[in-house]
């Protein structure tokens, strides 16, 4: 099994450095993993990413570098898959730091399930543990908020390359934040590709600790997620997708109640959020902020859908 690890990146150099060094210290059975390559696709970074990558090639013998103008993660992943020489693709993001047994765990789970099924119509989905610990990201314990029931999320999956080519790779119509990987997952599922959970293949997803100055970007992401949710639903107008993107009456009522009709928002909750941050509880503050952040997404997906209906008349 030859792995091609595809990593899109955009202005994340400090954590990318950690991610790449972790991938260079993999331990595995060479009878199972014959070799691997690390394909980094830079999406137009302006933080010195390319310069650092080029200057560090000797320290990163598995690294291959590709560049593109700022087109987004979907286009970057597609380029990475197209250039990959491995038979199996692993997707992780540039802020994911893995453990030394990462490749071995994916390979073991893939091979075991292939022998059971008698085919390779599977992909493995590794664990993703969120952390704000930059110095030692892999020391973070698993938390209940790390659980995900997503079918195909590019933070940590491994799949035979030919299945990605067969279904058509990522849809470039998802040009804002959100849903492009889950949409690809729907196409894979429709082809009968089975998900196999592989919690032993651990990836630690680093992001800065929650702070109030991050709120404008987080709100922007939720608005973009709502708009891309409509793109997702129009491609796959099913109840499953409608529930996934929260475009139901139930979700509107639920989040309207939880946000007290919008009374709980970034302005009214600011004192509480700052109080929690000051007491070293940024994760709890972020969970409270999710009340109004999710409300933004739910409102936007309904608004964007209504606009799309009017524009189609």
Question: What does this molecule look like?
Answer:
The structure is a single chain. The chain is an alpha/beta fold and 313 residues long. The chain folds into two domains: 2-206, Spore Coat Polysaccharide Biosynthesis Protein SpsA, Chain A, CATH 3.90.550; 212-311, no CATH class. Helices cover 44% and strands 18% of the residues. It is built from eleven helices and eight strands. It has an eight-stranded mixed β-sheet, sandwiched between helices. Helix 7 packs across helix 11, helix 9 (249-258) runs antiparallel to helix 11 and helix 10 runs antiparallel to helix 11. The model has no long low-confidence stretch (mean pLDDT 96).
Give the domain tally: 2
Strand order of the largest sheet: 3-2-1-4-7-6-8-5
Can you tell me the overall shape?
A: globular
Structural class: alpha/beta
């Amino acid at each position: 099994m030859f792995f091609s690890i595809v990593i899109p990146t955009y202005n994340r150099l400090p954590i990318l450095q950690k991610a790449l060094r972790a991938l260079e210290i993999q331990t595995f059975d060479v009878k199972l993993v014959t070799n691997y390559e690390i394909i980094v696709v830079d999406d137009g970074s302006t933080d010195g990413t390319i310069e650092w990558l080029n200057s560090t090639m000797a320290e990163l013998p598995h690294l291959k570098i590709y560049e593109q103008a700022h087109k987004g993660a979907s286009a970057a992943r597609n380029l990475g898959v197209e250039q990959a020489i491995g038979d199996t693709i692993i997707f992780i993001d540039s802020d994911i730091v893995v453990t030394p047994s990462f490749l071995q765990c994916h390979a073991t789970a893939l091979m075991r399930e292939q022998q059971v099924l008698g085919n390779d119509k599977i992909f493995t989905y590794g664990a993703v543990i969120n952390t704000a610990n930059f110095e030692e990201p892999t020391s973070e314990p698993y938390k209940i908020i790390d659980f995900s029931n997503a079918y195909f999320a590019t933070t940590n999956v491994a799949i035979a390359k030919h299945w990605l080519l067969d279904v058509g790779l990522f849809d470039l119509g998802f040009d804002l934040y959100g849903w492009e990987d889950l949409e690809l997952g729907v196409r894979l599922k429709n082809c009968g590709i089975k998900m196999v959970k592989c919690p032993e293949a651990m990836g630690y997803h680093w992001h800065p600790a929650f702070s109030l100055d991050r709120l404008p970007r987080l709100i922007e992401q939720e608005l973009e997620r709502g708009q891309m949710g409509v793109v997702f639903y129009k491609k796959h107008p099913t109840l499953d997708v409608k529930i996934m993107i929260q475009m139901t009456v139930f979700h509107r009522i639920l989040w309207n109640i939880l946000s007290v009709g919008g009374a709980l928002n970034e302005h009214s909750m600011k004192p509480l959020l700052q109080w929690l941050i000051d007491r070293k509880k940024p994760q709890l503050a972020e969970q409270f902020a999710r009340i109004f952040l999710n409300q933004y997404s739910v409102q936007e997906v309904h608004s964007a859908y209504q606009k799309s209906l009017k524009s189609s008349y």
